[in-house]
Amino acid sequence: MELTVVKNAVCTFCGCVCDDIELHADGQRIVETKRACILGEAWFKHHTAEKLYPPALIDGQEATLDEAIELAADILHKADLPLIYGLSNITCEAQREAVWLAETVGAVIDSHTSL
Predict the structure, then answer these.
(1) Cross-referenced SUPFAM superfamilies, in alphabetical order (predicted)?
(2) How far apart are CA 76 and CA 101, in angstroms?
(3) I need a surface site. Which of 31, 50, 54, 88 has the fewest CB within 10 A?
């Protein structure tokens, strides 16, 4: 099978926005990455566009989005020092909202890159 090669792909996973990555795809999946860090390589090779989960889960069970939002608000309201963690692979607008939420509820923010 012939591979499609994409040069100068941009990785948005950790926020560094590396823009010199080369990707090789077999038509279904990315099978090789060049110049991507370990986080970027894992993201490109294992990221899917398939819908794997319902819009919301509570304790592993399907729930409505309204139920999940209500539970999340209750958890944040009761928390002594909530942590907002991750924020990779999301838009700047979503990150802005996460910072607003952290400031509103007195949370701290950490990214997965601190590992």
Answers:
(1) Formate dehydrogenase/DMSO reductase, domains 1-3
(2) 10
(3) 50
